[in-house]
Write a structure and sequence with these properties.
With about 700 residues, this protein is of the alpha+beta class. It contains 21 helices and 22 strands. α1 packs across α14, α3 packs parallel to α5 and α12 runs antiparallel to α13. The longest helix has about 30 residues. The protein is elongated, with a radius of gyration of 36 Å.
């Protein structure tokens, strides 16, 4: 695929996914109300029209076909009014639209994966479902129309088959519909309506919209559109080619009009038949609307201003990654220039001038860095709104009445992180719906709760991270049952009575741990929670659980705003410089020998705030040479990540600095450096490399090995 086609495909996927996301959100909100608004009907019609056109351009037949059938359905609903549907039909329409959205999304996913799209038989099967529903809702209108037709005067019956008698017409477009379409009068009206937006013409039979009996005539003889100029009919032909359900068409000259054109008194101009000057429809297609409405044309000069420009553009995330890399290199280079040793050789005046320019450069690089970072920030609402659909589907399948409350959906995060946390949040929401909320309303009433369950999905900002919580008011978890289950599986590492409540709850995050007695369609609380926890930690986040039996459960995820730039504390160990994330540091302090205690295995520990924490000596863990080996000589940093707290012993603190996180080359991935406490690296002002420590990984490698 060349670059041009690849760019078109990226644009297509972005636009289509955005439209489907918006469709999902619209359907969920409207279903809660129980009805569509006229604006929403128009919005769905426009979305399907866009998807149909762009999919046809990309030659994705399954997408364009289904989108076109949905467009036809909403064309009918838009024309007749949503109020023409009874409540039962509206309920069926919601179900059909949710399934249609899922079908289109699955086809888009196949495009993204490079898989073959659905076969013709599957496309036809789903298209027939849409057509069947359209036929069902149109029957009511057809029956009403038959009653009106029965009471109509006899002279209003359709004319006999053949070319219409229209002396004003220059030419006719004679159209035949596909065989077996059904509701031919409705499809004919759709085609006529599409062309009437751009042209002035007359159609035969004239009552295709209101008279279902015209279907038989259209099947037999097709239908006609009469145009007063050849220019109009030629331009209408080009539009007709993009319409569906057409088997064939032909352009027919009007014999009566041709005889008039042959009169010698009228010269033939550009082979166009003469028309009456006072007839608005005689204007070419390009000016038909202006001729019919002279008042707006007169006011046109008042609107002679520049068109409104589009304020939003879509940018490939890879380009933003490259931009951020360049900004990071610029920050590092600026730091290297301002700390160059050659500056000491400058005169006082030269040095002052240099530092003045350097401060201005620092300000500009900081501003550029902030802008580059903000470009990657997107609201988390996209992820949160998808949970609406999950809750909606599970409510129907599990027969549970649950209300989803979303808070803080405009909270912004790095695009890559938002993509990474979607699956963990979805898993937690499913668990809460499936096994967190009580099975029946009676069960909740007996527990003194509102019959309707509540699920709260919230996001809030802190200085350097986003806190996401998923809270349900369901059963809650029983630590005693969790301990019993863990003991049955042989997962306990100490006597059950020594486990705290927090430790007992965290047992569900062990691989393979589950309290479910039966397997259901949805994951039970505990199934795969180790994977959820690992995914959150892979983006530098922490995962915590809190639950009260009989009250509910809250899952808390703390996730950094971005993985690209972080605030870090630089520390030295021998000749090496390490960077520890500020977000993980609780306190730094010095101690005396008397404050050191030892556990049963001889490991060093210190007391802070009535608790004892193990000490990790970085020089021992990484086998580094240093002259600072006594705890009294160095510095201890009390750090915390997730539910792990301990102290790191280093030689000294250099200071806090915002650093650009540089990932390691991919060939180092096989060494799983994160499991050994290494999260990446950064380049310092003098060009040297500083290892960024992963506090949680360091604990697992250093403390658990003891």
């Amino acid at each position: 695929m060349d670059n041009g086609m690849e760019a078109m495909l990226e644009t297509y996927l972005y636009e289509t996914n955005s439209l489907l996301d918006a469709l999902d959100e619209l359907l969920v909100n409207d279903e809660k109300i129980g009805d569509f608004s006229s604006d929403d009907v128009n919005e769905i019609f426009r979305s399907m029209h866009t998807i149909k056109g762009s999919s046809a351009m990309m030659e994705f037949n399954s997408l364009s076909t289904i989108a076109h059938h949905i467009e036809d359905l909403f064309f009918y609903i838009r024309d007749k009014g949503i109020e023409s549907l009874d409540p039962e039909h509206k309920k069926e329409l919601f179900d059909l639209m949710f399934r249609s959205g899922d079908y289109l999304r699955s086809e888009v996913q196949k495009v993204e994966e490079g898989s073959p799209l659905s076969a013709e038989e599957e496309i036809d099967s789903f298209a027939n479902e849409i057509n069947a529903f359209l036929k069902k809702i149109s029957n009511v209108t057809e029956e009403d129309s038959k009653e009106e037709t029965a009471s109509a005067p006899a002279e209003e019956k359709p004319a006999a088959p053949g070319m219409p008698d229209d002396p004003e017409a220059a030419a006719f477009l004679h159209v035949y519909l596909e065989e077996g379409s059904g509701m031919e009068n409705l499809y004919a009206f759709m085609i006529i309506n599409a062309l009437q937006d751009a042209f002035v013409f007359r159609c035969y039979p004239e009552d295709v919209e209101t008279n279902p009996d015209t279907s038989a005539e259209i099947v037999e003889n097709g239908f006609y559109m009469a145009f007063d100029s050849h220019d109009s009919v030629e331009q209408a032909e080009s539009m007709l080619k993009s319409q569906a359900h057409i088997r064939s068409y032909e352009i027919l000259e009007n014999p009566g009009k041709k005889k008039e054109a042959a009169a010698p008194a009228e010269p033939k101009v550009e082979a166009v038949s003469p028309v009456k000057q006072e007839t608005p429809s005689a204007a070419p297609a390009s000016s038909a609307k202006k001729a019919a409405a002279p008042a707006p044309a007169a006011a046109a000069p008042a609107k002679a201003h520049a068109p409104v420009k589009q304020n939003l553009i879509s940018v490939n995330v890879m380009k933003l990654d490259s931009l951020l890399d360049i900004v990071g290199e610029l920050v590092i280079t600026e730091s290297m220039v301002t700390s160059a040793p050659e500056l000491n050789q400058l005169s006082r005046d030269s040095f002052d001038n240099f530092m003045k320019s350097a401060r201005q450069l620092r300000k500009l690089t900081d501003d550029l860095q902030d802008i580059a970072m903000s470009l990657r920030m997107v609201p988390i609402s996209g992820v949160f709104q998808k949970m609406n659909r999950i809750v909606r589907d599970m409510k129907q399948k599990l027969n549970k009445d649950v209300r989803l409350i979303i808070e803080g959906e405009n909270t912004e995060m790095d695009k890559n992180i938002v993509d990474s946390i979607q699956d963990p949040i979805m898993h937690i929401v499913r668990n809460s719906m499936d096994h967190g909320i009580e099975e029946t309303e009676d069960e909740r009433i007996r527990a003194g709760k509102n019959p309707q369950g509540t699920l709260i999905l919230a996001a809030t900002h802190t200085s350097s991270e986003v806190v996401i919580t998923v809270t349900d008011d369901g059963y809650g978890m029983d630590p005693a049952k969790l301990l019993a289950k863990a003991a049955e599986k042989g997962l306990l590492t100490k006597p059950a009575e020594e486990y705290t409540k927090k430790e007992a709850l965290n047992l569900i995050m062990l691989p393979g741990f589950s309290t479910n007695q039966t397997v259901t369609e949805y994951s039970g609380r505990g199934v795969g929670m180790d994977v959820v926890k690992k995914n959150i930690e892979s983006v530098g986040g922490t995962f915590a659980l809190d639950s009260e039996l009989g009250t509910g459960t809250t899952v808390t995820m703390r996730i950094p705003l971005t993985l690209a730039i972080m605030d870090g504390m630089k520390v030295t160990v021998g000749k090496s410089i390490f960077t520890i994330p500020i977000a993980n540091i609780m306190q730094s302090f010095k101690i005396t020998t008397d404050e050191i205690i030892y556990d049963d295995y001889g490991n060093e520990m210190v007391a802070r705030m009535d608790s004892f924490y193990p000490v990790v000596r970085l020089h021992r863990f990484f086998n580094l040479e240093t002259e600072v080996t006594s705890l009294e000589e160095g510095i201890l940093l009390w750090v915390e990540a997730n539910d792990r707290s301990y102290c790191i012993f280093v030689d000294q603190l250099i200071g806090e600095q915002q650093v650009v996180v540089k990932p390691f080359p991919t060939y180092l991935n096989s060494f799983e450096l994160k499991n050994f406490g290494i999260n990446g690296c950064t380049i310092l002002g003098d060009g040297s490399i500083s290892i960024i420590l992963d506090v949680l990984g360091l604990y697992g490698a250093a403390v658990n090995e003891k």
